[in-house]
Design a protein that fits this description.
alpha/beta; seven-stranded parallel beta sheet; 7 strands; binds nicotinamide-adenine-dinucleotide
Length: 249
């Protein structure tokens, strides 16, 4: 129960890694504001928690400044404080440099990078008041580069840079760290790595590329997020923690 009564906001908490983080924080006693793009997607996600009053809705499209402000405002309205911000929301785009048009580039950058800047900005006064902390979900793709994913790799490299810059600006009040997962089995990975529409083939190929011969689980990812957000990581600041079964070694 490392987070008893802590107030947490998880962006993109309606499925995948974000939803696993919501479950893990609830299991350790936190109150959690669940963000997703729309009221409906958040309501559907909250149904999983069977009326648990520690899970509340914080809808808002965090690829926009207004959406970031709305999500943070909903969390503060519910809890009156904020101890942890998990900037998890993100999108993937697969395409060659030639196929990555301005619309795709902006969509990836806004969802993956702008969201981190402006959710953090909106949450700062509340996080300063609690001496809270921020965990940004970057990616191993932000350390290594891969073909046909320039926008995604660049966006995650930017999240790592943002993490380091924010950590330096916000110390000593607020710790800021990034997690850099390799492939984790979620809707994003299934769709993003499908080979000619075959998701299983895509996942099998991904598994074969890892030293551990498997990909990550959402539970393993959430466990790393909670570690970074906890006092166990009290002297970890500005880090970009790889969680990728040895892929960057
Ligand atoms: P997912 O597609 O399963 O879930 C993403 C979540 O973010 C969804 O709830 C979605 O609705 C939400 N979201 C997206 N854009 C949003 C917006 N503008 N406003 C509000 N919510 C928004 O993906 P996932 O695999 O769970 O990914 C979560 C994070 O982890 C992302 O930042 C992703 O880039 C990162 N990541 C994923 C993997 C992987 O292999 N799955 C690996 C490394 C990093």
């Amino acid at each position: 129960m490392r987070f008893k009564n802590a107030a947490v906001l998880v962006t993109g908490g309606t499925r995948g890694i974000g939803a696993a983080c919501v479950r893990a924080f609830l299991n350790e006693g936190a109150r959690v504001a669940v963000n997703g793009r729309t009221d409906t997607s958040v309501a559907v996600a909250l149904a999983e928690y069977n009326g648990n009053e520690n899970a509340v809705a914080a809808p808002g499209d965090v690829s926009t400044v207004e959406g970031c402000q709305a999500a943070v405002a909903a969390a503060l309205a519910a809890f009156g404080r904020l101890d942890v911000l998990v900037n998890n929301a993100g999108v993937f785009f697969r395409g060659t440099i030639g196929e990555t048009d301005e619309v795709a580039w902006d969509a990836v950058m806004n969802a993956n990078v702008k969201s981190v800047q402006f959710c953090t900005q909106a949450a700062l006064p509340a996080l300063r008041a609690t001496k809270g902390n921020i965990v940004n979900i970057a990616s191993e793709s932000g350390i290594n580069g891969y073909p046909e994913t320039t926008a995604y790799c660049a966006s995650k490299g930017a999240v790592i840079s943002l993490t380091r810059a924010m950590a330096m600006e916000l110390a000593p009040d607020i710790r800021v760290n990034a997690l850099c997962p390799g492939v984790v089995e979620t809707d994003m990975a299934r769709a993003g790595f499908a080979v000619d529409g075959d998701e299983e083939q895509g996942l099998a190929y991904q598994r074969s590329t890892y030293p551990l011969q498997r990909i990550g689980t959402v539970e393993e990812t959430a466990a790393c997020v909670l570690f970074l957000a906890s006092e166990d990581a009290g002297f970890v600041n500005g880090a970009a923690l790889p969680m990728e079964g040895g892929a960057t070694v």
